[in-house]
């Protein structure tokens, strides 16, 4: 599990608590080391030194390096902005999905996906999927408020997010222009329903 | 790379050659160890002992354990049968995709996907995608020979394979019954084109 002390829900530890401060400092240290050295050279003792905590603090909370790096990657994947408003649900989804595809297929994005998937039994992949769900849900809510039809979130996951990640992991990343075709496909069900 | 000696195309080393015999024996040893001990306990020296080769033979050819296990997983994912014939392209695709979804979401399937993705810079993911492509291509060829419309292979990858793997990796594996909806979606483009 990403957190052995069991004190965190989706939102992280109680803000401002000791546990939250330790986590923030360890995450910061890990990000700093990842930025300045090769991933294969990063170790728990190095992260501990950089963060000013003992290695055992890290072992106790994260268990092993893979778990910690997965946790750091998941935090980086947590959305830090509300999807851009373009005036329509389809436009919002397209803008958001294009940005998502670009970020995920970048070097840093690929490294984060890799780290998230590398931690066995951790909840990182599910949390990442949850973040995408939240953003799509927000776009869907705005569309609904404007009286527009919008596809089910699971359809958007299967038809837009899944191919973006599948191509990055198993084939060649899609070009940004190809994302529009995926969004069309997600909306096709809605349109047939409405017709 | 999966093979440092550079002697293999998609089809593996020259059958019957020394290199092919070493590879077969190392793969067999790795599979045997994976079957009887925990994955975290498997090491290159143990595999070498089981295979009756020196550890340096393995290091020279595969570089490191992750690469070897990825190679073993890719070999296991190589299709060993022709897709079942049901009388229609849609039926063939559905039968094949249901089996694919079942195999990949099993414990062994998940472990193989994990191993394939864990080897940095290796061509394993692409080879796996290539195997799926080959099978779908075969089904498409049979459909075409019968004069049926069949979706582009890339559409099938995006609309059928991608959601199956995405759900396994990031969410909850789809139930077998849900695969039919994905196949319908892949055929939707064809039907609109034909209408």
Question: From the alpha-carbon coordinates, what is the Rg of chain A to the nearest angstrom?
Answer: 19 Å
- Number of extended strands of chain A: 0
Oligomer: homodimer
Q: How many domain units of chain A? A: 2
Query: So what's the CATH class of the largest domain in chain A?
Result: Mainly Alpha
Overall geometric form of chain A: elongated
Q: Name the CATH architecture of the largest domain in chain A.
A: Orthogonal Bundle
Structural class of chain A: mainly alpha
Straight-line N-to-C gap of chain A:
47 Å
Question: How is the biggest beta sheet of chain A arranged?
Answer: none
Report mean pLDDT of chain A, rounded to a whole number. Answer: 88
Number of helices of chain A: 9
Task: Please sum up the structure shown.
Chains A, B: Keywords: DNA-binding, Transcription, Transcription regulation. The structure is a homodimer of 195-residue chains. With 195 residues, chain A is an all-alpha fold.
């Amino acid at each position: 599990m990403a957190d052995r002390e069991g004190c965190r829900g989706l939102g992280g530890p109680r803000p401002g608590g000791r546990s939250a401060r330790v986590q923030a400092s360890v995450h910061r240290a890990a990000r700093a080391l990842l930025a300045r050295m090769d991933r294969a050279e990063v170790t728990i003792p190095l992260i501990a030194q950089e963060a000013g905590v003992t290695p055992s603090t890290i072992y106790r909370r994260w268990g092993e390096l893979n778990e910690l790096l997965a946790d750091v990657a998941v935090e980086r994947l947590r959305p830090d902005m509300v999807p851009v408003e373009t005036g329509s649900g389809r436009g919002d989804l397209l803008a958001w999905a294009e940005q998502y595809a670009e970020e995920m297929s970048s070097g840093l994005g690929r490294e984060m996906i890799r780290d998230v998937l590398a931690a066995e039994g951790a909840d990182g992949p599910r949390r990442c999927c949850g973040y995408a769900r939240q953003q799509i849900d927000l776009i869907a809510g705005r569309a609904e408020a404007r009286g527009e039809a919008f596809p089910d979130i699971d359809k958007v996951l299967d038809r837009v997010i899944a191919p973006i990640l599948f191509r990055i992991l198993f084939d060649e990343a899609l070009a940004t222009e190809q994302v529009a075709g995926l969004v069309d496909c997600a909306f096709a069900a809605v349109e047939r329903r409405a017709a």
